Target: D-xylose 1-dehydrogenase (NADP(+), D-xylono-1,5-lactone-forming)
Amino acid sequence: MAFELRWGIISTGRIAMEFVKDLLVDPASRDVTDVAHKVVAVGSRSTESAQKFIDAYINGDNNVKAYGSYAEVFADKNVDAVYIGTPHTLHYENAVEALNAGKHVLCEKATTSNAAETKSLIKLAKEKKLFFMEALWTRFHPLTLELKKIAEEGTLGDPVVLHADLSADFHIEDKPLNHRMLDPKLGGGALLDLGPYPMFWAMLALYEHPSNKNARPTSVTGSILKSTITDVDASTSWTVNFTEHLKAQAILSCSMIAQTAHFGAVIRYKKGNIKVATPIFRPPSFTVEYFDGPGGNVVREETRSFSYVGGGWHFEADEVARCIKAGKIESDLWTHEKTIIIMETFDEVRRQGKYVLPEGVEKVDRVQ
Ligand SMILES: NC(=O)c1ccc[n+]([C@@H]2O[C@H](COP(=O)([O-])OP(=O)(O)OC[C@H]3O[C@@H](n4cnc5c(N)ncnc54)[C@H](OP(=O)(O)O)[C@@H]3O)[C@@H](O)[C@H]2O)c1
Model:
């Protein structure tokens, strides 16, 4: 019998819709038999919106509760795990409430407004013995698992330089000032929204590489170009060095006023390259180029393509269910430490780029 995880969803925006649609995909379609998913409650700031969401995306299922508040989802005894799909700066308080109500949590990226909030959430989850994970869905894709095997089996040698970009033209000039990409109170801008993905590839290819021996980044430099509309970042670039055991550098960027760079992500090793196709949050393929020796010519090239039923968010849901079934409070693949490193990097990039969130947005002080 599959272990069935009962989900409560908070918020009814775009990503909550994508996630829920994937929860309804038959796990057998991706050869999963050990876990299954059931949506039991949807919470929104209005009951009408929750009901509309259930009607549109959960086939109007009468067994799914429509709540006009998030608190009612946290209080629902039938909910095992809460999925948080609100804007970034609300994640902290939403997750605290969910954990205090005894629920496991899968929380959208960017996990919180700053690293101090993330650390405080992780501490709470540990105290409560509850599962907590940043919803970094790309980590669980079949493509990522396969790429990691090839990257780490030795032929390519150590990674040296990684380039990754995720951008999208949000047409912010047409958006209201309280849109989550523009409003500083909602952590608007490119970095917190798009930045997790270039950073993810740096974490996967450099931080996770066995030669790095789990060493944290040794330095971060950042540059922010502010929007002309509100005081959030329109385009941001940053570098992350890993020099304790590797001699490797990640060169990362994101923009909300330009289309994404065509190269997606390129990982350059001593003896070859891996080119990850766009979009880097859900790449359809990757190509490995093998050199005839260190710094040599490309002598062999292999492309791997991947497809599956659904949008790709169900793989992270399966991970959550498996971890909870096993009594774990943390995923081995996307650990608390990786989320903390990402948030610390973003704190540093915002500090260097002088992107200060408005007073009161950060609920836990940065210095803690
Ligand atoms: N993993 C991914 O692929 C992915 C993709 C896109 C976004 N995200 C992340 O998911 C989060 C939400 O993004 P989204 O694109 O789904 O945003 P969205 O469409 O604007 O939805 C956000 C939802 O949050 C709720 N909300 C609560 N307070 C709000 C406020 N003050 N202003 C606006 N909405 C508020 C609303 O739901 P109710 O009215 O029902 O309460 C709203 O529909 C962000 O943190 C983002 O980084 C992840």
